[in-house]
Amino acid sequence: MGSSDIEKGKVDESVSIHQDRRGMTIEQWKHTFNYELLEAKSSPVPVSCCIFKVPEVLRRQEKEPYEPDVVSIGPFHRGVDKFQLVENVKKWYLNCLFLPLRQRQRQTVLNMDSLIESIRGQVIRARGYYSDPCYHLDQNDFIEMLILDGCFLIELFRKAPSEHADRQDKDDPIFNMPCMLEYLYHDLLLLENQLPWFVLESIYNLIEDGSPIAPLSQVVIDFFKNSVAEPKIFSYPNPKSPKVEILHILDLIRTSLVHDHLEHANQQKTPASKLVNHLPQRIPSAAALSEAGVKFREGPSGCILNITFKGGVFTIPPLAIDERTGPMFRNLMAYEQCYGSCKHMITSYAVLMDNLIDTNKDVDLLCEKHILANWLSADDASKFFNDLYNDTTVIDYVYKGVCDEVHSYRKVPWHKWRKKLKRDYFETPWSTTSFIAAFVLLVLTFLQTIYTLEPYYHPRPAHE
User: Transmembrane ranges (predicted)?
Assistant: First the structure.
């Protein structure tokens, strides 16, 4: 760059040629900029990433569903003062694993060396699971975090079931304070509070000496069945189905919720070129559909996503909702929004339920049909569904076919007339009796009129 550049108009004379606004020479700036570009050669979010910080757009309305109350798992909330009590419990749990009494319950001795050796070779892979690689933690700190958090979780899950109450220490603060378990149910299902599943499995196999009584997935699901009002919504993956890779605890819970529906969806998989990111026209609310002749029926317990509409009948599996339901659904949906390999199934469910529930009247109708078991007020329940999928996107809406069938059904006027006829004339035995009596009277009156007029139009011959 020289005076000729200025003369040709390529450089603004009002800007210093030798220094930029930060006081760096052009050569220094070029060197710094090239170094920054060199560092950016790899993607800031690797394809292996599956544990994310919740996007600000999702938490701007409510922050509480995404933030831990008593425990930090993983690197995102590590070191916060309010989690110190459970940090001490983590160390105590780990120490208990090495006590002689505990060792005699296993055929082999668990020791720190075996734990460190098991985790050391997994650090690089584990870092790749996080959207923020957390380089503020060096390798030793990262290994310590994986061991403390992993052992705490495994011991918590092993102690929790009632049949294993003998594993609980009498001075265990987690099980001596009932509120602690409630807080943990919330915290351990947060997207930001996850540990890679392969780390948990390696620790579980070490503790159980490679011969666990039950798979870790079953132990974890059994633990979280106590966290919801309706435990049947969680199911164990079908052992005959293709093995599903579990990425972390939240991913396991999502899989247990959607697995049955996912198998059916995979059989009818939509090509990527045909995926759409817009929603179909909203369907009317449950009360409005009922007025139009649609019936609502409780579906089989289990996979809450197995919603069908056939012959004017909406069949919906039961769902119990309380104050714990919202955070679980919000974190499941945040996971679907962030992880590209996740089909938007929970988000689709939230959209459909929001369509069906507008007001208290809709909540009352679905409760009457045993589709909803509501532990909230009717106002809070309707608001829960109305706000659930705000600021989310839905790609390949799961219930598009259901919505199309509902709209087709509503286009037939007879369905609405039939409903009105039933409501006005056949709602009670007395109204049915009155309608039949009126109908019989009308028929008799009609026949009498015919017999009265018949001689006038068809007179008999005179000789008769």
Answer: 428-451
- Residue 388 tokens read as 């659930």
314 membership: H or E segment, kind and range: strand 313-316
Residue 163 tokens read as 């049949």
CA distances from 426 to 246, 294, 314, 376 (A): 53, 16, 22, 34
Q: Which of 293, 297, 302, 281 is nearest to 236 (CA)?
A: 302
**Distance (Å, whole) CA 254 – CA 392:** 17
Parallel/antiparallel/unpaired status of strands 308-310 and 313-316: antiparallel
Cα separation, 392 vs 174, in Å, equals: 35
Three-state SS sequence of 284-304: CCHHHHHHCCCEEEECCCCCC
For the stretch 169-228, pLDDT in tens is 788 889 888 899 999 999 999 999 999 999 999 999 998 887 788 899 999 999 999 888
CA of residue 45 relative to chain centroid, distance: 22
Cβ 289 vs Cβ 406: under 8 Å: yes
- The fraction of the chain above a pLDDT of 90, given in percent, is 54
- Candidates 25, 24, 1; CA nearest to 13 is 1
Each residue of 230-279: pLDDT tens digit? 888 998 876 666 778 999 999 999 999 998 875 555 444 444 444 455 68
Neighbours of 98 (CB within 10 A): 13
Residues 6+ apart with CB under 8 A from 443: none
H-type alpha helices, 82-211: 84-97, 100-103, 112-120, 123-127, 139-159, 173-176, 178-187, 197-207
Residue-wise pLDDT for 1-43, tens only, equals 444 443 444 444 444 444 444 677 888 777 777 766 766 666 6
